[in-house]
Amino acid sequence: MARKLTSGGKLVLASHNKGKLREIEALVRPHGIEVVSAGALGLPEPEENAPDFAGNARIKALAAATASGLPALSDDSGFCVAALGGDPGVYSARWAGPSKDFTGAMAEVNRKIGADPDRRAWFIAALCLAWPDGHTETFIGRIDGTAVWPPRGDKGFGYDPMFVPAGATATFGEMDPDAKHAVSHRARAFAQVLASCFG
Ligand code: IMP
What we know:
Elements: E1 10-13, H1 18-28, E2 34-37, H2 53-68, E3 72-81, H3 102-113, E4 120-130, E5 136-147, E6 163-165, H4 177-183, H5 185-197
Parallel strand pairs: 1-2, 1-3
Antiparallel strand pairs: 3-4, 4-5, 5-6
């Protein structure tokens, strides 16, 4: 049995990424849990040195929960491209460098795909809920689609402008938040958090 969050309780969002914070806050808000970001509490960003999304999500959630004494929810996610063997994957943030240049990172992805006709791509999100006593619950969400070029739209963040989810024509960068939340990797993982740990 998964552990539940206490209704009316407080939850730390263990991320310093503005795009993710905006999306996770929108997902949690309707469920009667007060949220506070790790940045607002002055919590440091731990080193993400696990080889996979779930491992890095666990590192971030546990660090925030133990430092704050509150339950914490983290997100580790990335953009994966079939023709690149799943890269940039867990290195999605690192491909943008310290200046967070996602225009450059997207161009690099497109350059590396080159003439390969296989444009399949997907996003993965691992959401981890951790408690101060070290208990964790981790959930994975995925959305499949196509890597397109040139990038389109400025509504999202990261690699959103070069990703069209299967069955759509707009990129994530062109979609309103509700349309992205209807199908996104993050929303799919969050639906599992909700079913297991809320209420
Ligand atoms: P990390 O989980 O902090 O290592 O960073 C994940 C990186 O993956 C982000 O900085 C984004 O570049 C990318 N990413 C994750 N989720 C999304 C998304 O929903 N849209 C666009 N890019 C994303």
